[in-house]
Design a protein that fits this description.
This protein is mainly beta and 321 residues long. The chain folds into 2 domains: 5-205, Collagenase (Catalytic Domain), CATH 3.40.390.10; 214-317, Immunoglobulins (Immunoglobulin-like, Sandwich), CATH 2.60.40. It has helices at residues 47-62, 142-154, 198-207, 213-216, and strands spanning 5-6, 15-19, 22-25, 33-38, 71-77, 88-93, 103-110, 115-124, 129-130, 140-141, 162-166, 172-177, 218-226, 229-230, 235-240, 246-250, 257-263, 266-273, 297-298, 303-305, 310-317. A hairpin with a 5-residue loop joins β15 (235-240) and β16. α1 crosses α2. The longest helix is centred in the first third of the chain and has 16 residues, at 47-62.
């Protein structure tokens, strides 16, 4: 069995596996990633429209100037997603049992290296879909959901940069989001999820950096402490005072250590908060000791991110609620 979990260090989250005593990030060793589209259609969307919407989503990731990943459309296929057939396939499938899942991504991984060998995306046709340029009331946007799932296909996990409210009928509604990789989609009819944000760009650039990204950006690292002990699962957010952008990470060990990479040089405000706007299982393995019972805290000083370097040794203390 392959256990996918966040890898330690860096911003955002990357999928990883344990190889010996190491956590290794999952990524494609060879690009372009070859993509097939299943030839099944859904009401209101032609095969050509489906291809165009998915292609736009791939182009958005590929156009990140600080990342080097690329993708190639190979052709249409009758093969279904999730078949582990050596083909990375995207397609619709009717899964009414997954009544809160718009899309899902699976992986085939070389467990000796962490190399991604295949990744399939399923879009749930139990929901209604649209490719309309301005969105369509009551229908979910193919391009937006594909953009999120392609982030997973590329090796990115979920971001917690968003705000939600709990619904009386169960589940959550998104009020705001600062990352395509936020695990809860905007409401049907919205196209707000078509645009990558700073956290998404930092994530894909870390996994597949171009030749200059590390010399142009910097990082912040440190630890989150409560009562003298490290805090596991705290959400640490860096706010860029110059651009207003947000990039975040988590503390991923029992010492409360974190690192946020891919930051623009300059002054940043640091905030740490419990993971209370999404289900912790969206980020961490079930049963992991994610700390939730502490107050939102800010570092009492600005952190100046150096170009090509790390602002290390930051310590943020939090108190119990």
């Amino acid at each position: 069995a392959i256990v996918l979990r966040p890898t330690a260090a860096e911003a955002y989250l990357k999928f990883g596996i344990e190889i010996g005593d190491r956590q290794v990030a999952l990524k494609w060793a060879e690009t372009p990633v070859r993509i097939f589209l299943n030839d099944r259609t859904v009401p209101g969307i032609s095969l050509a429209d489906f291809q165009a919407a998915v292609t736009r989503a791939f182009t958005t990731w590929q156009a990140v100037p600080t990342a080097s990943i690329s993708y190639q459309f190979v052709g249409f296929t009758a093969a279904e997603p999730f078949q582990e057939d050596g083909m990375s396939t995207i397609g619709f499938a009717n899964r009414p049992d997954l009544d809160r899942v718009l899309g899902a991504t699976t992986f085939l991984v070389d467990v000796s290296t962490g190399e991604l060998l295949e990744s399939d995306i399923l879009l749930n046709s139990a929901f209604t879909w649209s490719v309309a340029g301005s969105g369509e009331n009551g229908r979910f946007d193919v391009e937006s959901i594909a953009l999120h799932e392609i982030g997973h296909l590329s090796g990115l996990g979920h971001s917690a940069l968003g705000e939600t409210e709990v619904l009386s009928t169960g589940g959550r509604r998104v009020l705001a989001s600062e990352a395509v990789m936020f695990p809860i989609a905007f409401a049907a009819g919205s196209i707000a999820g078509r645009t990558l944000r700073a956290d998404d760009i930092a994530g894909i650039s870390d996994l597949y950096p171009d030749n200059e990204v590390q010399s142009k950006t910097g990082s912040i690292s440190g630890e989150v402490i409560a009562n003298g002990a490290g805090v596991f699962g705290a959400h640490v957010v860096a706010f860029d005072l110059t651009t207003g952008s947000l990039v975040a990470s988590f503390t991923l060990d029992d010492q409360g250590r974190f690192a946020i990479a891919g930051l623009a040089p300059g002054p940043h405000v640091l905030r740490v908060e419990p993971l209370d706007d999404i289900d912790p299982d969206s980020v961490f393995d079930p049963g992991e000791p994610v700390a939730l019972d502490f107050r939102v805290s800010f570092l009492d000083r600005l952190v100046v991110v150096p170009r090509g370097g790390d602002a290390a040794g930051v310590q943020i203390r939090v108190t119990a609620k």
